[in-house]
Amino acid sequence: MQGTVATFDPDSRTGSLLLDDGTPVDFDRAAFDASGLRLLRLGQRVRLEHGEDGTLRRIAIPTMP
Asked: Out of the domains of life, which is the source (predicted)?
């Protein structure tokens, strides 16, 4: 699943994404930290990876494995 960064707070490392259908999704520090990224910019495309329980586990750049 992919979306676009809507908000990002570099201090708390949390923010929100908009899925392609317009659904907002918040992400927490753990999902951002699992990405290995240092920051996100507004409008950036990202891939969302969910755990087996359905929680957002990781945010990644679409071209990264």
From this structure: Bacteria
